[in-house]
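Entry for the shared binder. Reason: the reviewer on the internal report wants the predicted structure included alongside the sequence.
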Amino acid sequence: MTKRELCKRASAILWSGEITPEDDVFLRELVKRHPQAATKIGVGIDHFEIRRGGRFYQNVLWLIRQDGTQTDISYRKCVNGDASHRTKVLAAMRAEIVDQIIGFRDRALMTDARCALTGVPLTRENLHIDHDPPFIKIAEAFFEKIGGGAESISLMDDMDGALGRLLADRAIALDWRRFHQARATLFLASAKANMCKGAKKCPTPPTLRGAKLGESNAQEQESEK
């Protein structure tokens, strides 16, 4: 199977919410590709489970070992290998501002919420929350502010069940959250529209119905492994 096919199969298992005997066989082979496979597998795999959790309360794949210990697993890491330090830092920066994202979602997702790119109605099941300017542009501006780039930022240790790492220096984390809050305008988009936006296949947005975090929050204060 190609990497794309492996991701598609693993994603389908994850979002199905259940693991069949055939899925179990597939996942046992997939975990062998993990960069820390020996540590993840430990004394041996007993079974896998899909649980709801994480910062966005999504489906998460868990490996339960024969001795009863357990760890969360990223199928993408199994397929693509270990990420660069820059990618890990960006993931941690996203994790640091998750409260801002969820707060915006809960305020903006009303019964008549619509995609800012296409105008289609939205539900919790079919939405993405996007940035304007893009998240990466805000992050790069922050790197310039502090100097040294992503390579100069250290991360907390990786731990089972943490579902993502955070920035080790909490002063930098606080500075980043304030920086993001002051500069980010968030808007709701359908998952399909947001994904095809990068490929430039979506129609021109009728209007960008977003909210600047610095304004909205003045009134009311994702497994990486």
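Summary line for the report: Residues 85-219 form one domain.
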